[in-house]
């Protein structure tokens, strides 16, 4: 029984993983100036920051009389953890949707990029250097990668 | 309310013979069927079968509730010194799942045209309103008229410049329209049609996909969330007649001004009021000429109100 429950839980995690998976992309608008790009990105980040955390409400788990109080508490904890993960995922999804809608509204197209490229940029400790890399991707006339929908 | 009072003990009949009758009766009598909240405690009002008792309760509820509702509408009096908005909002259909319908809702907020933000917002902190002052109004409940397609709202508002801030949890932060409501004015905002701003080739899930999503991902939302947009047109002769409270009153068309931007204060997605199809356009959607509303008002006043 326990093995079956664990297998079900693992399956649930695997199935829900794609929903939480992150897309790696950048925005491109040929010819945009650095100041304009920074202003646009800041404005869209500000709007995305307005997304409120999803209210998942209290988590109810029926008390199992066959379990001890500690095991019941553990069950509630696990259920709350999963509910929190789902709520956090919805929140991040909404923030990304706001950013994408806002940047598209300002004329930017979205291009998919390999994970290492984004990872490398995000590892840069110098913020100006990081912005410079993203700006280079944003302003180029020959964007690399596949254009993806808004 | 006296129907709910229990019968006096003398009126109660027992299945057992009384002391006067003596023990000689062979059979106990059949009691009439009763609908009782507590066993062995017959209610005068509830005498009869359960079905008819429920019918009586329902009739009583109708008799009490309906006049009260009618009175609430009839009591709506227009303050000649106050500002009002009249708006018709169509239902939101196929929002997430195919075949679903929900009443459409619009949020309006007080706007600072100088600072370019909702009053008290990030770009307009100096216009912060007092705690008891109304900052935003959600037009989504207590309609003055409703049909299968739309609802009509008439709401008193503080005189000010207002912006159509959003619909549902979508804020039209990327571009919306403002209007002014002056004291003594009844401003006709027209008729709005909310819908999801899908990309080409996208659409609502069918019920089975939605239930699968809810079961495995904890949400019926699509992978890519899409905001709401509003289509607009002036109210016409085929729409709701003016409510009785506005009989003989003069309405003014909203003096819409386009291009208002502001922060995302509704906590959800953002969009332009007219959706992605209106990007790059100076005017979001056509504005009703004042003559349309004047003609509409004249037509309403010549027709008998229901």
Explained architecture:
The complex is a heterodimer of chains A (150) and B (306). Chain A has 5 helices and 3 strands. By secondary structure, chain A is mainly alpha-helical. Chain A is elongated. With 306 residues, chain B is α+β, with helices and mostly antiparallel strands. Chain B is built from 3 helices and 15 strands. In chain B, strands 4, 5, 6, 9, 10, 14 and 15 form a 7-stranded mixed β-sheet that branches. In chain B, strands 1, 7, 8, 11, 12 and 13 form a 6-stranded mixed β-sheet that branches. Chain B has a two-stranded antiparallel ribbon with strand order 2-3. The longest helix of chain B has 25 residues. Classes of the chains: A mainly alpha (150), B alpha+beta (306). The interface between A and B is medium-sized, with 26 and 29 residues.
Give descriptors for this structure.
heterodimer, A: 150 residues, mainly alpha, 3-stranded antiparallel β-sheet, 7% strand, elongated, B: 306 residues, alpha+beta, 7-stranded mixed β-sheet, 15 strands, disordered N terminus, disordered C terminus
Short description:
The complex is a heterodimer of chains A (150) and B (306). Chain A is mostly helical.
- Give the rounded overall mean pLDDT of chain B: 78
> Based on DSSP secondary structure assignment, what is the total number of beta strands of chain A?
3
Count up the helices of chain A: 5
**Structure classification of chain B:** alpha+beta
Percent range for β-strand residues of chain B: 25-35%
Largest sheet of chain B: 7 strands, mixed
Stretches of chain B where pLDDT falls below 50 for ≥5 residues?
1-17, 24-48, 66-72, 283-293, 301-306
Low-confidence stretches of chain A: 13-20
Count of alpha and pi helical runs of chain B: 3
* Order of helical and strand elements of chain B: HEEEEEEEEEEEHEEEEH
- Termini separation of chain A comes to 45 Å
């Amino acid at each position: 029984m326990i093995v079956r429950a664990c297998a079900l839980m693992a399956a649930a995690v695997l199935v829900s993983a794609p929903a939480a998976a992150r897309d790696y992309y950048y925005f491109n608008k040929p010819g945009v100036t650095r100041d304009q790009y920074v202003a646009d990105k800041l404005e869209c980040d500000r709007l995305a920051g307005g997304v409120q955390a999803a209210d998942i409400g209290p988590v109810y788990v029926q008390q199992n009389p066959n379990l001890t109080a500690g095991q019941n508490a553990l069950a509630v904890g696990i259920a709350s953890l999963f509910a929190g993960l789902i709520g956090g995922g919805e929140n991040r999804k909404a923030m990304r949707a706001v950013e994408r809608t806002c940047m598209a509204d300002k004329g930017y197209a979205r291009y998919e990029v390999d994970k290492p490229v984004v990872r490398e940029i995000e590892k840069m400790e110098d913020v100006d250097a990081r912005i410079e890399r993203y700006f280079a991707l944003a302003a180029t006339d020959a964007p690399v990668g596949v254009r993806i929908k808004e | 309310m006296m129907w709910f009072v229990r019968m006096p003990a003398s009126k109660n009949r027992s299945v057992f013979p009384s002391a006067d009758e003596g023990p000689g009766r062979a059979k106990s009598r059949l009691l009439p069927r009763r609908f009782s909240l507590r066993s062995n405690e017959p209610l005068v009002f509830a005498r009869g079968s359960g079905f008819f008792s429920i019918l009586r309760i329902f009739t009583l509820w109708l008799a009490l509730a309906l006049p009260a509702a009618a009175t609430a509408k009839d009591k709506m009096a227009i303050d000649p010194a106050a500002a009002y908005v009249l708006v018709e909002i169509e239902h939101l259909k196929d929002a997430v799942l195919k075949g679903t319908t929900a009443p459409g809702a619009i949020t309006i907020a007080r706007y600072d045209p100088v600072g370019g933000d909702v009053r008290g917002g990030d770009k307009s902190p100096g216009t912060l309103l007092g705690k008891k002052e109304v900052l935003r109004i959600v037009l989504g409940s207590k309609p003055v008229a409703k049909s299968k397609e739309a609802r009509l709202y008439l709401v008193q508002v503080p005189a000010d410049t207002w912006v159509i801030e959003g619909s549902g949890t979508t804020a039209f932060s990327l571009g919306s329209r403002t209007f002014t409501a002056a004291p003594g004015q009844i401003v006709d905002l027209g008729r709005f049609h909310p819908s999801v701003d899908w990309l080409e080739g996208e659409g609502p899930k069918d019920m089975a996909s939605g239930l699968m999503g809810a079961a495995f991902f904890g949400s019926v939302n699509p992978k890519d969330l899409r905001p709401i947009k509003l289509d607009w047109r002036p109210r016409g002769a085929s729409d709701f007649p003016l409510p009785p409270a506005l009989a003989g009153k003069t309405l003014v068309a909203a003096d819409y001004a386009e291009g208002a931007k502001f922060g995302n204060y509704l906590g959800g997605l953002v969009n332009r009021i007219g959706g992605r199809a209106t990007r790059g356009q100076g005017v979001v959607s056509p504005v009703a000429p004042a003559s349309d509303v004047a003609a509409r008002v004249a037509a309403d006043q010549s027709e008998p109100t229901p």
